[in-house]
Every structure is written in C-alpha cells, then in structure tokens.
Design goal:
The structure holds two protein chains of two kinds. In chain A, about 60% of the residues lie in helices and about 5% in strands. By secondary structure, chain A is mainly α. Chain B is α+β, with helices and mostly antiparallel strands. Chain B has two domains: about 100 residues, Penicillin-binding protein 2a (Domain 2) (Alpha-Beta Complex); about 325 residues, DD-peptidase/beta-lactamase superfamily (Beta-lactamase), CATH 3.40.710. Helices cover about 35% and strands about 25% of the residues of chain B. The longest helix of chain B is centred in the N-terminal third of the chain and has 31 residues. The chains are: A mainly alpha, B alpha+beta.
C-alpha cells in the first residue's frame, strides 16, 4: 500500500491518498490572476451601467414629480379663476336667482 | 540556426521594440502629458448646466383669494421644414379649428421650409394643448411657457400691476415688491448623455423662490367697490373715477378701485397705457370742499372757533384783486361753523383762514400729510403739491381754506379725514398685511400712527359737524337709514393749463366715515368731470351712500340710529 499526499503513482502499487497539496504553477497563476481581474472589471462595468440606468430612473421620477407639482399649481390657479366673483356672477346670470333689492336688519330689536 | 536567420530575428525583434517604444511613448503622451487637456474636453462633453428659475411669489387678498400666481400656458409651434410639402395642407386643415384661423391662412404660414415661424397660437390652456398634442402631427409641437396669471381678471388690476415679458413687475405691487416677489434663480450642474439628457446631478445651487404677499384688500369689498364705481361713472358720464375704502382705526386699505381699468392677463393688448396708473394714488387734484373739514379742525384745535361759533357772511369777499364767492352765489347770512360746513360756504372759510393765519394753516396742512407721499406700498405714488408758505399770497391763503391752490391724491385726502374718525391721529396707510418669505419668516405689518394732528376732542367735534353735513347739508344723498354717516362733498373746479379754471369742468368727490361714533370704515369717492350732473352731491354722494349701505350689511354693522 502506498500512502501518499500527492498524485504520484507507481505501477502495480495501490495507493491511498491521505492528504493532498494543491499547487498552482506560475503559468496557472497568471491565468487565474488575469481571469479574476477580468471578472472584477466586468462586475464593475455591470454595476456602473446599472447605476447609470438607475440614475436615469431617478431623474425621470424627479421630472415627473416636478411636472405633477407644476400641474398642481396650474389647478390651483384654475380653481381660483373658477371661484372668482366675475365667474360666479356670469354663472348666476344664467340661473334663475333673483337679485337682492333691499337688505336690512330684521326684527324690532332696536329700542 | 544560421547567422542569417538570427540576424533576421534580431531585425524583427528590433522592429517590434521600436514599435513598442513608439506606442509606449504615445500612450504616455496621451494619458499623462495631455491628461488635463483630455479630461477637460471630456468634462466639457458630458457636463451639463441647467438653470432653475425661481418661482415668483403669489399675492393673496385678506380673505385668501388668490390674486396673482404662476401657471403654465402653451404655445403651438410648427416647424415647416419637418412637414412634407404634400402634407402641409392636411396639417393646416387639421389645425384650423384649434387655432381659430382659416386653413388657407395657416397653409400660407407653413408653406415653406423654414425651421422657425412664430407660434400659431399662444397662451393655450393645458386642455387645448393636449388636444393638439394628441393629434401627433409631424412638425407640430406644443411648448409650455410659464406665465404670470391673475385669476380674478380685472379685480384690483391697478393695485396689482403686472409682470412684463422679461419677468419684471410693473406698476402697483408687482413693481413695488419686484425684488421680493422675483426670488433668485438656481443652477444644477450634472452629467449628461449624448442626447443631452441629464442623468446625474453633481452639485446644485437651490433656487430661492419669491415671497408671498397677503394684502389688506378684501376681495368682496373690492369687487363691490368696482361695481359701484363702474355704474356711477357710466350714470354720471365721468371721464374716470376712484374709490378707496380703509379701516379708520388701523389705516389698512380694504379696497382701492379705479375706472377705467384693464385685465393684467392681457396688459399687452391695452392701447392707452395711462390706464396702468393707479389714479387713486397717482393723480393729484385740487380737492375743493373736501378740504374744508380739515381747515375747520385746525381752527377749532387752535381755539379760534367752536362748532357753534356764529358769524354773518356775505355772498362774496374780496381778497387782493380777487373776488371769492359762495358756490351758489348767494349769501348764507348768519351761520354757525357747523352750518358753514353744511352749506360749504367758501366766504366763511376765507374768514376762518384769516383767523387761523397762514403759518398755522400751512403747518396743519403739512401735518395732515399733504405735500409728501403717504408711503403706501404701491409704485408711482404722487406726493401732491403744497406751495411753500413763504410764497403764499393773501389770495392763496384764502383759497387754500376751501381746497384750491393745493393738490392732493384721493389717498391723502382720505387719510387726513380719517384723523377725524380716530381721535385726531394721522395713520400710515398700508395695503400689505404680511409678507411670507420662502424660509417661513413672516414680516407682519403693524398699524402706525404718524402723528397726532389734532386733539381728540377736536376730532370728535369735527366728526359731529360732518354728520350734520350728511343729515342737513349737501351730503344728504349719502344718507343710509338707521346709520350716522360723517362726510363732506367736494365739487372742485378743474384748473386750466397756465392759470384760471374751466367754467364747465368740475371734479366731484365725497369723503366720509361711518358709523360716526364708532367708525368701521372710511371712504373717498372721486369722479372726474361728470357730465350728467354738476355737483358732487348728485354724483359722488349717492355712490358713497350706495357703497356704505352694502358695507353695513357685509361687515355686519348694526344700526346706531332709530329707524323710522
């Protein structure tokens, strides 16, 4: 029985590996390093692009908010215009209201 | 490998080394040496700066009616170059019902290859804009434009003024408070994409919006005053007219109306720009007999006369080379000072001016606020004119006693008369109740007493004399059943350019306050050159009575006299 910690073998000998050492050679290390750097760069680009699209979304929401605020102000002005005394007078002229011809304090409260 | 092969490899190697060196140098040159320049160029390409306009402050009445605000209106823009020549007639026909022009007129405007033509229609509402935008016509777009809007139309137009195309206020409150209302614009600095859209904000300077103004003007009183004035001007065929109503206890202006008027939403359509002037504060005139109670107050305050002092007066008096007559050219005989005001006796007022003396009279006229601006917060206020006492002739001293030879605005006359209503105090008139800043700070206006012009008892005496004018004298048309009203008419001659007065032109006015013992409002009405009637008692006085009646009910003022 060959007891070993590596992948070496011998013809005709049974082997039991009790411990393995993981070794990377210099060439492999270069490839792994380049791959990791590329993955990191890719991740950064992906996040950056996603961040930019989020910014567009934020700017769009901001523009929509401003538009809604502007519409709210427009409605306030329109409401004021509809409540104006001129508008009310014009609308009452089309109705059957009778104008007041006299107004005075009621009752004989004055002694 | 033989020597020749090695030599070729060395040559090739040397070539690659040279190329690498050159490339390396270029890289170094671009990325290190010229880094700053390229960074700036890149910055320039994607940096965007946008202006953030400040929102102009709003103006409210005392009853929270919105008088001036900002809104968006829409312009219809057409780019003829973007419309195929074969489609232009179709576009013209489609737009015609929305624009209010004929299809042929529109076609003539767009039948070219220009990139810009003036808007086909301006100041459309949002609904109108959406209808056109929904047509989705190529080359046709609807552009939003921020405009100053006056939702109440003509209401208090000369008090408000307007905002011109450059965003600056003109006349009235818009002009006087332009810096407070306008605010300060801001900026946003950010990054943009190739289409110019900003996707990131790097820094910004916040816009500071304008302050909001809250007025002392009551929109209902203002509206009614404008109606009464309009009807009076039409009825008596006046050239123009003014009404001012104020609180005699504080000096707050409740209404200020002029006719003719205009709609500040369409200020650019006005032909005669004199209508922009607020003649209630801008137009100084010789007030005539409305001046008499003030001179009478001065004489009583000096102890020269009392309301029941009697004397006998003729129909005329000669001063220097001038003959001064009563308005009716008849003698009133023996009169008390109260009756002098009831009859509006010019001859008696000349006698009073003699008792008072020119220096004393001048001092009281100045103390009443004449000859200087009242200081109300409105653009284009006039100061009127009071000649220096050193230059007064005997005749000038005499005529000043009945309001000739001095010019004053309706506001000045009103505030001087108000002193009789509040125990003798000249108040500072004001029209802005508070200013609310964008940071929440509130500047509240407090009533201010400028000076104690006459003693309290003097004011009360003149108050009662003015009640007698309305009960018994020329002010009778101003009466309202159940209420005591103190007032005085004034029918003033209009001076000719140069010297002298027109024979056939007069200004009619009425000034007063009510109820006499506990005044809640003071008012002046002035009507220029009423052609249908000659005297103020037939024009300004009835209008005063009509407006007073409305005010008693609106303000819930109980009658202070027994009703018949």
């Amino acid at each position: 029985m060959l007891i070993t910690n590596n992948r070496s073998w011998q013809n005709g000998a049974r082997k039991r590996t009790i411990k393995k050492d993981f070794k990377i050679g210099p060439m492999s290390m270069k490839f792994v390093t380049i791959t990791l750097l590329a993955l990191a760069a890719l991740f950064y680009l992906a996040q950056s692009a996603q961040g930019s699209s989020q910014k567009y979304q934020v700017m769009q929401y901001s523009a929509e908010t401003q538009e809604l605020q502007a519409q709210s102000k427009d409605l306030e002005v329109q409401a004021a215009r509809l409540k104006s005394l001129d508008e009310i007078k014009k609308s009452t002229q089309n109705s059957d209201f009778q104008p007041i011809d006299s107004n005075s304090f009621t009752g004989n409260s004055q002694k | 490998m033989n020597d020749f092969g090695l030599k070729r490899i060395r040559i090739l190697l040397g070539f690659f080394v040279v190329c690498t060196a050159v490339l390396g140098w270029r890289l170094f040159d671009k990325q290190v040496t010229m880094h700053v320049a390229y960074a700036a160029q890149a910055q320039n390409q994607y940096s965007i700066k946008k202006s953030v306009p400040a929102e102009r402050g709003k103006i409210y009445s005392s009853d929270s009616m919105l008088l001036a605000a900002n809104s968006r209106l829409y312009d219809l823009m057409v780019i003829p170059n973007y419309i195929k020549s074969t489609d232009q007639m179709n576009v013209a026909q489609t737009l015609a019902p929305y624009v209010g022009q004929s299809a042929s007129d529109i076609f003539n405007l767009i039948n070219n290859d220009k990139y810009y033509i003036p808007p086909l229609k301006r100041k459309m509402t949002e609904q109108e804009g959406h209808k056109i935008a929904d047509l989705k016509l190529k080359g046709v777009s609807v552009i939003a434009e921020s405009v100053r809007s006056y939702p109440q139309g003509q209401l208090a137009s000369q008090v408000l003024g307007f905002v011109d195309t450059s965003g600056n206020g003109k006349y009235g409150l818009e002009g006087y408070f332009n810096d407070d209302l306008k605010g300060v614009g801001g900026q946003i600095f950010g990054s943009g994409d190739t289409q110019g859209r900003m996707f990131d904000v790097n820094s910004q300077v916040e816009a500071q919006n304008g302050a909001d103004l809250y007025l002392t003007i009551d929109s209902n009183i203002q509206y009614q005053a404008e109606q009464v004035l309009y009807e009076a001007v039409q009825k008596y065929q006046s050239d123009n007219g003014s009404i001012i109503i104020c609180d005699p206890n504080t000096g707050a202006i409740l209404a200020m109306a002029n006719f003719p008027t205009y709609d500040p939403n369409d200020y650019n359509k006005v032909d005669d720009q004199s209508v922009f002037n607020n003649i209630a504060v801008n137009n100084a005139w010789e007030p005539g007999s409305v001046f008499k109670p003030l001179i009478m107050a001065a004489a009583i305050d000096q102890g020269k006369v009392q309301p029941d002092t009697k004397n006998t007066f003729a129909e005329s008096v000669k001063v220097d080379r001038y003959t001064i007559e009563t308005s009716t050219k008849k003698a009133y005989g023996e009169e008390t000072m109260t009756q002098v005001l009831e009859n509006s006796d010019n001859v008696a007022m000349v006698w009073i001016s003699g008792l008072l003396g020119r220096d004393s009279m001048y001092q009281y006229i100045k103390n009443f606020g004449f000859g200087r601006k009242a200081g109300i917060e409105l653009d284009t206020e006039a100061a009127g004119n009071v000649a220096n006492v050193k230059n007064w002739s005997n005749s000038q001293t005499a005529t000043m006693a009945f309001g000739q030879g001095v010019t004053a605005t309706p506001l000045q006359v009103l505030m001087a008369t108000v002193a009789m209503a509040n125990g003798g105090k000249l108040l500072q008139p004001y029209i802005v109740s508070k200013i609310v800043r964008p940071d929440g700070k509130i500047d509240q206006t407090q009533p201010k007493v400028i000076t104690q012009v006459v003693r309290q008892d003097t004011a009360q005496k003149v108050d009662q004399m003015m009640v007698a004018v309305v009960d018994n004298g020329h002010g009778r048309p101003a009466r309202v059943t159940g209420y005591s009203i103190a007032g005085k008419t004034g029918t003033a001659q209009v001076p000719k350019p140069g010297s002298g007065y027109y024979e056939d032109r007069f200004n009619g006015s009425f000034v007063g306050f009510a109820p006499a013992q506990n005044p809640k409002f003071a008012m002046i009405i002035r009507m220029d050159n009423p052609k249908a009637v000659a005297w103020a008692e037939d024009s300004a006085a009835p209008a005063f009575g009509e407006m007073s009646k409305w005010l008693f009910n609106y303000m819930g003022i109980a009658p202070d006299r027994k009703q018949p």
